[in-house]
Design brief:
It is built from 19 helices and 21 strands. By secondary structure, the protein is α/β, with parallel strands linked by helices.
Length: 513
């Protein structure tokens, strides 16, 4: 696609999408954006804010793109005749960067619904209005559990996957490869982190989750070192890796610049490009820089044989990042032959110690996205009449009494919930010798842990749209009392929800909505 022509961009409100929107506008493309309306802001207002952000940062006024409201997660875009006519007359290509990034399947069908069914709806739209050029933003991890050298032209090698996200992105690529008459160019980034120049990010998953969890546990559980002249704290944590595992980290600004550059190369259309580092950094370097920034000592690399007797701290840390293990030290080597041949002048920034410090300091300064995460939750999960009291006082006790988890963990304590917002309230639950005893309104003074959250987040956790750990790490669930006990119970509650059948959970939720 030649600069000056029109394109339809999806995913502009995500981290990479922010940068793609900027770089496409700077390159001279006429951009139309497909974005969903939020609860507090319409799609056009959300995109206008992003363009204003970049205009201020660049010191020049960028053109505000045409914005069409639509949601891929609905399965059907339901665009008006006017919107369809605009696209048919003004867009010659699609740059599809929208995706649901969840690693867990939810009761409402994510991430499959947005990633696979949403992409299918967009393909159908392209056929109806005559767009035949498609640029797919995928992930290098469509390789799944494969190890060793991963070539760009490889897709279906009979691999298994670590999570539904990988499988959904693989399925999208597979379907697109079989679409007759659609010219598909695919971009497969590795693990995307912040801006190489500023450290900016608006997404704090993956790489950042690893760092934040370590910092938060250390703040509550680390001990001062015995040496009086040392400002470090002792953080006795053994990690089940060697430390030399390669971390495939790549900066968001470079990924966007590479994609926009490749979009304009007509001779390379129809190719697949791995977008990753030329020199992956060892996991040990990330840990050493983080330990220095957080003033921690005591982390050890003990090898992949595992920990036969993990401490409570190790259980909490490793349990909290388990979903991200494959990306912290995988055994893949991603060939980037096509990328190096097409854009040899675009060398990814080296992730060195100063750059790692920049990323960490930005995240800490932004409190790991605490305010933005709450804002997103308010927009993405509006209260829809969910009655927390009905769930806590009726549904939860019935399921807790038949669940073996309380007995297996030998629970003997009280736990309290302080849920703010519509449908919320305060409750306390007690287990005695592993058996669920009662639930009552109010906060017991003897409660070992008090969980504080809002009704939207509570509903999202109970319905399986996100995990308690995820909401805690994004600071939409806070707790007072014993942090170690609180995190252990969060893991148990997540297992409790997973053990409950989806049918039973759906029936229970239908009864309280």
């Amino acid at each position: 696609m030649i600069p000056g022509r029109g394109c339809l961009l999806t995913g502009a409100t995500g981290l990479l999408g922010h940068y793609l929107l900027r770089d496409l506008l700077v390159a001279g493309y006429r951009v139309t954006v497909l974005a969903r309306d939020g609860v507090q802001q319409g799609a056009a207002e959300r995109i206008a804010e992003i363009v204003a952000f970049w205009s201020e940062g660049l010191g020049r006024t960028l053109a505000v793109p045409r914005v069409i409201a639509g949601e891929l997660g609905q399965g059907s875009l339901d665009l008006s005749l006017a919107d369809r006519h605009w696209l048919s007359q003004n867009c010659q290509a699609v740059i599809h960067a929208a995706a649901n990034l969840s690693f867990r399947s939810s009761t409402d069908g994510e991430p499959w619904r947005t990633n696979v069914e949403g992409s299918a709806a967009l393909v159908k739209l392209c056929r109806q209005i005559g767009i035949t050029e498609w640029h797919q933003v995928s992930t290098a991890y469509v390789c799944g559990r494969r190890q060793g050298l991963i070539r760009e032209e490889e897709l279906d090698c009979g691999q298994d996957f670590h999570n539904p996200y990988e499988q959904s992105k693989w399925e999208v690529e597979r379907r697109l490869s079989r679409e007759p008459g659609l010219r598909v160019t695919t971009y497969r980034p590795a693990v995307i982190i912040g801006d190489s120049r500023t450290g900016y990010t608006n997404s704090y998953t993956g790489f950042y989750r690893f760092l934040e969890l370590g910092k938060r546990l250390a703040e509550n559980l680390a001990r001062p070192r015995a040496s009086a002249d040392s400002a470090e704290r002792e953080f006795p944590l053994r990690l089940p890796w060697r430390g030399d595992e390669p971390c495939q980290l790549v900066c968001v600004d470079w990924v966007s610049h590479a994609i926009v550059s490749l979009v304009g190369l007509q001779s390379w259309q129809g190719s697949v490009f791995h977008l990753g580092p030329r020199c992956p950094i060892p996991a040990r370097l990330v840990q050493e820089i983080a330990a220095g920034e957080f003033r921690l000592a005591g982390v050890q690399w003990v090898g992949p044989q595992g920990l036969p007797d993990p401490s409570r701290l190790e259980q909490l840390f490793l349990g909290g990042i388990q979903e991200y293990w494959p990306y912290l030290g995988g055994a893949q080597e991603f060939s980037n032959r096509n990328t190096m041949a097409a854009v040899p002048h675009l060398v990814p920034p080296l992730i060195d110690p100063p750059l790692l410090k920049r990323f960490i300091r930005f995240a800490v300064g932004k409190q790991w996205g605490r305010s933005s995460a709450r804002s997103k939750a308010a927009q993405a999960q509006p209260w829809g009449g969910f009655d927390c009291a009905e769930y806590i006082e009726r549904v939860f006790p019935e399921q807790a009494r038949i669940s073996p988890l309380g007995r297996a963990a030998r629970l003997d304590l009280a736990v309290a919930f302080d849920v703010r917002g519509p449908g919320g309230g305060q409750w306390s639950c007690r287990w005695t010798r592993g058996e669920f005893a009662y639930v009552q309104r109010g906060l017991e003074k003897q409660a070992a842990v008090v969980y504080q959250t809002d009704s939207d987040t509570f509903q999202a956790v109970v319905s399986g749209r996100e995990t308690p750990q995820q909401a805690f790490f994004e600071q939409r669930i806070t707790l007072t009392g014993d942090l170690e006990t609180g995190l252990k119970l969060a893991f148990l509650f997540n297992q409790f929800l997973r053990d409950s059948s989806r049918i039973e959970r759906k029936e229970a939720l239908n009864a309280v909505v």
